[in-house]
Amino acid sequence: MSNVTWTGGVEHWTHKNTPEGEVKLFLWEKKASPKVPHAGAIFFVHGSSMASQPTFDLHVPGRPWSSAMDWFADHGFDTWTMDNEGYGRSDKHRNINFDISNGADDLAAGTEYAMKVSGANSFLMYGISSGALKAGLFTERHPERIAKVALDAFVWTGEGSHTLDQRKKKLPEFLAKNRRPIDRPFVHSIFQRDHPDTVELAVVEAFADAILTLDDSMPTGTYVDMCSRLPLLDPKKLTVPTIILRGEYDGIAGMDDLIDYFRLLPNMNKQFTVMRGISHASFQQKNYMMVYQILHSFFTMPEPAYQG
């Protein structure tokens, strides 16, 4: 494995009760800058093939604000993320494949702890890929904890998803075991499958270093869910203000599938954004600063004065 360290944050641990006993869950916090007005608290949710810190607190020499947590903290947000069970520093010992519903359970435990520690009344939540499914499912279950939710690289029924069509060919392999090996070529494949020019090689290498520092395998549960059990979410149950983000070249998120989901969201404080020149892992793309600005605008937009 590579050797990467993370600095400037606060390490937290909480637990989740399961039939097999307590499970330890790792959380990482970066506090809002005191130099700007406080803007709220964001909880970031990672995807299927990497833990939280590589995704949201990545540092790349010569790439300003490569860490999304640093950028949002500098703009007045308390920032939190966590390793789902089976990933990174969180426990991995249970004999399960750590599916999306289990990840939503993790978020219930993690947000409860973070609210207690920070005093936050609610969170702004951002999830990417299977993390968007976890964030959406958690928000369906606990809308009182989420002020707004952002779903990036999201998939609803899977219709029109070229990546999932290819991944389904390996479904028997994913069903046969709880974990799948990962290595540096696998991390490269995340960026090569859609449009390689959307990302810089130095970022991919730094991302791979960070991922492989923590894990040499990943759970199969989210892959099984996304290949064989969609839809897992009901848009009519997602009642909080929502933004759907879709990269121009993203092979996971079928455009018509997302528009159909978006159309059924009941809260009219909602947005659908297509991100130019972006494929799947938006915070690692050349156009990452655009993603920050889109999220910042949505998260800081005031409530409508007139709601009809």
UniProtKB/TrEMBL annotation:
InterPro entries: AB_hydrolase_fold, AB_hydrolase_sf, Hydrolase_4. Residues 68-283 form the Serine aminopeptidase S33 domain. GO terms for molecular function: hydrolase activity. Coiled coil: none annotated. It comes from the Bacteria. Signal peptide: none annotated. GO terms for cellular component: membrane. Keywords: Hydrolase. This is Alpha/beta hydrolase.
